[in-house]
Amino acid sequence: MVSEHEEITGYISHIQRFSLHDGPGIRTLVFMQGCPLRCRWCCNPEGQKHYPQLRFVSVRCAAGGRCNSPCVAACPERAVTLSEDGKLQMDWSRCQNCGRCTEVCLYGARTMLGQRMTVAEVLAEVEQDCCFYHRSGGGVTIGGGEPLAQSEFALELLKRCQARFLHTAVETCGYIPWKHLKEASEYLDLMYYDIKHIDPVRHKELTGVSNELILSNAKRVLSGKVKSEVIIRTEVIPGCNDSEEAITAIAQFVVESGGKMIELLPYHELGSSKYWQLGMEYELVGVKPPTEEQMQRLREIVKSYGLKEMTGIY
């Protein structure tokens, strides 16, 4: 284990306390930055890049009214300008996420999402709620982004959490070297492993990468080559992987690989507003969540393969 005086640092998107999801009991969720996938439905776009990003909430902006727009002068890249009618304009292609505009913003319209933290700093946040973990059977869940993209940091954090007898969980897309996944599993009680689509062509269309490495790692994980409990997760996205054929293919793969549990998560639109605030385009505008009737049909498919459908348990 690395000495706590020789601190490893990593980029953390945010830390969410008192969560009742992503593992048993009351949990603290540590969202790390950086992900090799670009899923069209990603609800945490602020975790895609490996560094902090500027967030601009236009409804809080007082340009042309209550302030003199100091952000315009503060931006060294001239990404922030004023139009002739006094409205603030943002050229995201010029923004370098330096954060200087956030230092002079008077109304909180501009903030940086993410920060560099040491393992000790994250652990200090986590340990504030130890009494809740022990009473509820909860613990720590590391997500992202893809947490194991910062493998050294994630591994050290997991080691220290287990040394303090905290329940540990990780959420992974599986698109990482097997070595990193195997190392992390030694210090995990629970692994959530995402499988988004079995068809390799469709998977690349939806996420930007092939699923070859993901499925290869999944077979190893499900065949018992890790110590932790494993739950396969599939987000059900209308028009992407919500067909009975797509879910059947995933269930069949899980069974054949030795898996026992799947959690189907219905698509939601909660992260869509973040895209505009980050200068990004959201591709699923107008897409509505699957109905409960549709979700129930898909859950029945999972159960028909003898798999335990975990919705409502964690």
Please give the structural blueprint.
Layout: E1 9-19, E2 27-32, E3 53-56, H1 70-74, E4 80-82, E5 88-90, H2 100-104, E6 110-113, E7 115-118, H3 119-127, H4 130-136, E8 139-143, H5 151-163, E9 167-172, H6 178-185, E10 190-194, H7 200-207, H8 212-222, E11 229-236, H9 244-257, E12 261-266, H10 272-277, H11 292-304, E13 308-309
Parallel strand pairs: 2-8, 8-9, 9-10, 10-11, 11-12, 12-13
Antiparallel strand pairs: 1-2, 1-7, 3-6, 4-5
Descriptive report:
This protein is of the alpha/beta class and 314 residues long. It folds into 2 domains: 9-50 and 115-309, Aldolase class I (TIM Barrel, Alpha-Beta Barrel); 53-110, Alpha-Beta Plaits (2-Layer Sandwich), CATH 3.30.70. Helix content is 32%, strand content 21%. It contains 11 helices and 13 strands. It has helices at residues 70-74, 100-104, 119-127, 130-136, 151-163, 178-185, 200-207, 212-222, 244-257, 272-277, 292-304, and strands at residues 9-19, 27-32, 53-56, 80-82, 88-90, 110-113, 115-118, 139-143, 167-172, 190-194, 229-236, 261-266, 308-309. It has a 9-stranded mixed β-sheet. A two-stranded antiparallel ribbon has the order 3-6. The two termini are 30 Å apart.
